[in-house]
TrEMBL record:
It comes from the Bacteria. The lineage of its organism: Bacteria, Pseudomonadati, Bacteroidota, Flavobacteriia, Flavobacteriales. This is Uncharacterized protein.
């Protein structure tokens, strides 16, 4: 497909934004300074630009034009890079005071000097005696000018606050959650034929939902357990890469996420899946996960 194709142009633009985001995140140490203000503005713009490029529309167009999934692979890879960077900074992000950055760093940087100068100028003219060669009318007009100048700067600050109050938001998590949805959409439009077998117990979209639930629960890190390996294990198949980290939050993972996905399959098959999960994810035993799985939710 030609690079002049509008769809490819939009996808390249989308990928460019993702790469810029990666570079920003890679060097981000989350400090309460003016550089962080610039970063916050950049994150807000990147998030807005990504949302403007409607990924669902691009995927639908890609389907209509029989576009290969390979075109979307770079986007998927970049999403993984971004989510890993955000995951690695999770503790810093969790404890970062975005309101303080906005109120105590950004606004003073933008307006403190302007307001100070305007007030000083007004004070000088108010305390100054009228020169004998200046009429009272001219002198009063001069005072009104500097009063208006102060009001203008204050109004400029108020307008800026109204237009930019969104900068107190946590764009790290907004970007992360949005990109997880994009990843789900790509998998939904382009199922992994090499991954999915007719004999598999679960659909890719259902396993992906469970995988994302496990990530949110912090059962493991995305870099430690890829979706493909997670999918293979859930469908009683050997993973390509062995899981060597600690699988946490087992009870919360068992119910409701795992329970909701497996509640309608036969008990003996369900037991096999649980045993295989225990084996491949190196859990101590199936006892905890089985108890939680079969125990009614209202008792937990």
């Amino acid at each position: 497909m030609s690079l002049d194709n509008p769809l490819l142009k939009h996808l390249n633009e989308y990928l460019k934004i993702l790469k810029e985001l990666s570079n920003l995140l890679d060097t981000d140490s989350l400090q309460q300074n003016t550089y962080q203000c610039i970063r916050q503005e950049s994150y807000a713009k990147a998030f807005s630009d990504l949302k403007k490029l409607d990924i669902d529309a691009l995927l639908i167009t890609g389907q209509a034009e029989s576009l290969s999934k390979k075109v979307f692979l770079n986007i998927l890879k970049q999403i993984e890079v971004i989510n890993k960077l955000i995951e690695d900074k999770d503790e810093l992000i969790t404890h970062f005071d975005f309101i303080h950055l906005y109120d105590k760093v950004l606004l003073p940087k933008m307006f403190e000097n302007k307001i100070l100068i305007a007030r000083q100028d007004l004070k000088e003219i108010q305390e100054k005696e009228k020169p004998i060669w200046v009429s009272q009318c001219e002198f009063d007009e001069d005072k009104k000018y500097w009063e208006k100048e102060l009001y203008r700067v204050l109004a400029e600050r108020d307008t800026y606050i109204q237009d930019n109050v969104h900068l107190i938001q946590n764009y790290y998590y907004k970007i992360r959650d949005y990109l997880l949805t994009v990843k789900e959409d790509i998998y939904a439009y382009y199922p992994e034929d090499r991954l999915r077998l007719e004999s598999d117990l679960f659909e890719i979209k259902d396993v992906l939902k469970l995988y994302n639930s496990a990530l949110e629960l912090k059962c493991f890190k995305e870099g430690d357990l890829a979706f493909e390996d997670f999918y293979l294990v859930l469908n009683l198949r050997e993973p390509k890469t062995q899981f060597d980290s600690a699988f946490k939050q087992i009870s919360k993972f068992a119910q409701p996420p795992l329970y909701e996905m497996m509640k309608d399959i036969e008990k003996d098959v369900r037991n096999k899946v649980i045993e295989f999960i225990v084996l491949k994810f190196k859990l101590k035993s199936a006892l905890t996960i089985s108890k939680r799985f079969y125990k009614p939710a209202e008792e937990i």
